[in-house]
Amino acid sequence: APVGSAVPMGKDGASLRQQLALNLHTFHVLQTAYGRRRDLDASVGARGLHGEGYRGHIFWDEIYVYPMLTLRRPEITRGLLMYRYRR
């Protein structure tokens, strides 16, 4: 499924600005992690796709996105966990 198909996350009572911010951040996480599969030996960079800091180094920061990814795209979480398991 396309990355954008998992983005809409409107919360009842949230302002339009809050909904847009939540959707933007969800899109950034999915864009950075999308395509991570069990057979792909890669993880999420510390700055994602949004900055040159750390020059693509991999830290343990992806643990902070596991809860959201597990609910929306469990196959991505599985791929990220397999990356750690192989190390």
TrEMBL record:
Listed Gene3D superfamilies: 1.50.10.10
Pfam families named in the record: Glyco_hydro_65m
Biological processes per GO annotation: carbohydrate metabolic process
Residue span(s) of domain Glycoside hydrolase family 65 central catalytic: 24-87
Membrane-spanning ranges: none
GO molecular function: hydrolase activity, hydrolyzing O-glycosyl compounds
Name recorded for this polypeptide: Glycoside hydrolase family 65 central catalytic domain-containing protein
Species of origin: Streptococcus pneumoniae
